[in-house]
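Assess this:
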Amino acid sequence: MEKIVNTAVILAGGSSKRMGRDKTRLNLKGKSLIKIVVDKLSSIFPEVIIAGSTGEDLSHLPVVFTRDVIVKPFKNSLTGVHAGLSRSSSEYSFVVACDMPFLNLNLIDYLSRYPARGYDALVPKVKEGHQALHAVYGKSCIPHLEEHLEKDSYRIGYFITRIKTKYIPQEDIEKFDPELLSFFNINTEEDYQKALRMVEENPNLISLK
């Protein structure tokens, strides 16, 4: 199938309240979390955008950086998605949180080639729920995002129910990522310690393989 997604948007504007420190600077096997994610995505997308207000020095990374176009009193994922889609040169973009180091490139390639025409978003859905921060969004989402943000509606889980969303079932996802490690995210110190153990046991989790 033709690849319709040529841009990746990394959301890096979270407040990291549960972690208590900038998650992008967390280190796994000598690489910062943000560099792991950027390296993976830049290997398959010609354009990678970081949307957010991270303090990380990004000058050494092959990315475009954009801040929120719509500024709200507190940080939320919808302002980041809006900024990333507004800056993207592609009709559809793969959007992912910066704290997901175990991205599966084969799964992302599958999502990038999925026939998305007629939908605003492609969102994986597993037994734990939807994965709206590991999904494909179209520029058609921009006016809907602006409408939600104008109403101070910030929940991305609610947002995807108000647009034309195609849910990708777990059985399709497991063909590429049987353990669903793509959706492992680091929110707490406990998550970080678990990630360190996982990478120690299997360094390929953060490689480009």
Summary: The chain has one domain: 5-202.
